[in-house]
Amino acid sequence: MSGALDPIQEDLPLDLPASPQGATPVPAAPRPAAELPPSLLEQFLAQLRGLPWARWRAQAAPVLKSGAEQVGAVAKVAVSRGSAAARLAAAHGGTVARVAVKRGAPYTVQLAKATAQISLIRAFPLLIARTIHLFGYPAVVLRTSIQFTVAHRAGLAIDEVIYFRVDDPAGYTVYEAPPRLGTAIAITYAPTLVLAVLAVVCLAPALTPRVVLHLPATWVTWVQLWLGLAFAAHALPSYEEAGPVAEQARVGVVKADPVSVFWVIPAQIVAILTRFGGILPAVAGVLACWWLAGALLH
User: Fold this and answer.
1) What pLDDT is recorded for position 218?
2) What is Dmax (Cα atoms) for the chain?
3) From 20, 176, 264, 273, which residue has the greatest number of CB atoms within 10 Å?
4) Whole-number mean pLDDT of the chain?
5) Under a CB-based contact definition with an 8 Å cutoff, are residues 218 and 279 in contact?
6) Is-contact 151 222, C-beta < 8 A?
7) Confidence grade of residue 280 (pLDDT, cut at 50, 70, 90)
8) Which tens digit of pLDDT belongs to each residue from 88-112?
9) Is 293 exposed, middle or buried (0-12, 13-18, 19+ CB in 10 A)?
10) b/e string for 88-109 if b means 16 or more Cβ within 10 A?
């Protein structure tokens, strides 16, 4: 037989032509991987990066500058008084001069430290309140949405709606003053009822596996605890919401309004509880909802 036999060529898929003898096979181009949607953590970090940090720093700079200028002015006055006392004491004797020198710069430093400590003590409750709002931002958004919906359905003019911000209060709705106390109560306390129910609904299943069934906690349990505590911490209104309702109820008592007579005491209690920021309302809401969810298990 003349000539060599052709090498055996295996069947190719999809009827592709056989590669010539000695040719190097070309690998197929890899398929582009499907883009995965961003995770919840990435979305939360993107929201944090999207906050106007530069604008907040610009707003805080004048306050810090004015505070520094006030401390500097006090320091200058103290140093000038100390210097004058030192000159007067030098004219009357060395012992008095040594006492005046000790009351100079160290006194100014102590005054600056005391001013800084007072500012830190005043800012610490606000820092805790902002942390509570960041922890429970879903509840803040839901509460503001319910409040806006009730005010809009009541036919009141809405001036401004802030669903979430890093401040205390974290969310609010600026609306027209309602003419009736019942409308004001619905706008302020309808979100309280909804958030309290949601808190109990989330906390009761989270407490059941540990207390009743003695099952280990899973990630679902932790999510339920987070949502339940967030809803409970923001169930009560802020003072900007509860204060006008309490005042309207007090005025209605003078006019012998039956709704005001019934509501004036609870409204005043909530107004006093919320007067000093969002920490006390958060603690009271968490304790009440936790106790109610535990009572349902027994």
Assistant:
1) 82
2) 136
3) 264
4) 75
5) no
6) no
7) very high
8) 444 544 444 444 444 445 555 565 6
9) buried
10) ebeeeeeeebeebbeebeeebe
Q: How far is residue 37 CA from its own chain's centroid? A: 26
230: Cβ–Cβ under 8 A, 6 or more apart, which residues?
A: 135, 136, 137, 138, 139
Q: Report residue 113's pLDDT band, with 50, 70 and 90 as the boundaries.
A: low
Residue 198: band (very low, low, confident or very high) from pLDDT cuts 50, 70, 90: very high
For 10-53, what is each residue's pLDDT tens digit? 554 545 455 555 455 555 555 554 555 566 566 666 776 777 76
Which of 288, 274, 284, 195 has the alpha carbon at shortest distance from 238?
A: 274
Give residues with Cβ within 8 angstroms of 212, minimum separation 6.
297
> Within a 10 A sphere around the Cβ of 67, how many other Cβ atoms?
13
**Whether the Cβ atoms of residue 170 and residue 133 lie closer than 8 Å to each other:** yes
- With the CA atoms of 265, 271, 276 and 282 taken in that order, what torsion angle do they form, in degrees rounded to the nearest 10? 90
Expressed in angstroms, the distance from the first to the final Cα of the chain is 97
| Strand 172-175 to 158-162 pairing | antiparallel
